[in-house]
């Protein structure tokens, strides 16, 4: 199964561009599902006006489709999207071209998890669990040294089980953190260069906003 993270951003664009982001997300999710792909909205940042988004992050995987379908779908969106429409907010505004940036990240290529970067420590569990819960160091704290991310697992009275849980949760937390860093970096880059990217639209949509 292939997985990709998609980020849609309005960059430094005006309110109309934040409306474009919201519309792109709607279209993208509809098209993906029609092609048998699984798509989920992970997070979004709302704009100042109703029905607008400053940015959105989506998770896309093959679902019932295949990797070729996913690659073709991403190829049709990755880059700058140009939306041609009259401004819904400024009736007499002459400008009719609005832009949003779409960036794609391959989850498996971007995330580099190495268990060698993890430091595990045992400690005494706290809270409910019986008379003996604090007498043995069954809880496990894991620290991902490069990022400083920490996770504490104390679900079980078995230190071995808590170690496994700790590693699983730490990996998931690291993946989420790593993707946030990549998305933030990409958004900063697109904002810096959006003036240049406007001449290279990967898709042009003409429809009311």
UniProtKB/TrEMBL annotation:
SUPFAM superfamilies xref list: Release factor
Start and end residues of each Prokaryotic-type class I peptide chain release factors domain: 124-140
GO terms for MF: translation release factor activity
Superkingdom of origin organism: Bacteria
One Pfam entry name: RF-1
InterPro entries: Pep_chain_release_fac_I, Pep_chain_release_fac_I_sf, PrfH, Prokaryotic/Mito_RF
Family (UniProt): Belongs to the prokaryotic/mitochondrial release factor family.
Name used for this protein in its record: Peptide chain release factor H
Species the sequence originates in: Chitinophaga agri
